[in-house]
Structures are given as C-alpha cells and as structure tokens.
Design goal:
Helix 1 (15-35) packs antiparallel against helix 2 (38-70), helix 1 (15-35) packs across helix 5 and helix 2 runs antiparallel to helix 3. The chain is built from 5 helices and no strands. By secondary structure, it is mostly helical.
Length: 156
C-alpha cells in the first residue's frame, strides 16, 4: 500500500509577523506609486487604498485593543493613541493623492503619503511590536494573527 505524502501544515503567523508583512507590501506599493504615472498610477493608488484600509481595520479592530489590554505602562497607552492618530492623518491625506495640477504635484503627494506610512510602520516595528512581544503570550499573538488573517480575507 502506497503511503500518502503529508504536506506540512502551514504554521499560522502571529499578529506581529502578519503586520510586518503588511508593512513591507505597503512600502513596496508606495515606492512604485511614487514613480508611476497614468493608468499604472491609478491602478496602484486603488491597490494602496484597499491595502491601507484593510491593514488599518485589522489593527484597529483586533491588534490595538488586544495590545491596549495587555499593555500596562503609560508609554504603551500613549503609543496606541498615537497610532490611531497617524491612521487618521493618512485617511485625510489619501484622498488628495488623486487630485493634482500636474504629474509633479501628484508625485509629491504620493511621496508625502509614503513618508507618513513609513514613519508609522517604523514606529510600530521599533517600539510597539517589541513591547507587544514582551507583554503578550506567544499563543495570544498567534491567535490574534489567525483572527487578523481571517478578517483580512473577509475585507478583501
């Protein structure tokens, strides 16, 4: 009797790894958007809008509340409020990236959006995510990652 070869089950990502993966994808898309023109720019901008919406939704609905619950230091709480505000600023800047007087104006707006998102991602990766790993159990981070992946699927 032939034995069936087992494929190893894909290990679920934890919440921090999933968010870092999102950040990398967004950095790549925004870098391309900054250089793009015409129809390619429109397509990339639509993709950036969707990815940002999904990313901020899973952070705000799932990750931030869980981190707030686990975080006991005042600095951690301030970091969470800052992250929400940074999302709000991106939400205000994003619609303007579709409007411009010329190609240079549009590129400048794309660059500002890119810098805002990169600043936010860098702060999370350098400050919030290491704190989350210290304050939250591995199992909790994995469970959050699974919930976030499921929610991402729903939103896409």
């Amino acid at each position: 009797m032939a034995t069936k070869k087992k494929t190893p089950a894909k290990k679920p990502q934890d919440a921090v790894a999933l968010l870092k993966q999102d950040h990398e994808m967004l950095r790549t898309l925004l870098g391309s958007l900054e250089k793009a023109t015409g129809a390619r720019r429109e397509k990339l901008l639509s993709q950036v809008e969707q990815e940002l919406k999904v990313h901020t939704t899973i952070e705000e609905e799932i990750f931030y509340p869980a981190f707030r619950e686990a975080a006991k230091k005042k600095d951690d709480q301030v970091m969470i409020y800052e992250a929400y505000e940074e999302h709000h600023v991106v939400d205000m800047v994003l619609p303007g990236t579709r409007e411009g007087d010329n190609a240079e104006d549009l590129k400048a707006k794309a660059k500002v959006l890119k810098e805002l998102v990169e600043h936010h991602a860098d702060e999370e990766e350098e400050e919030m995510f290491p704190r989350a790993r210290k304050t939250m159990e591995r199992a909790e981070l994995r469970e959050l990652g699974e919930r976030m992946a499921a929610r991402r699927k729903e939103l896409m």
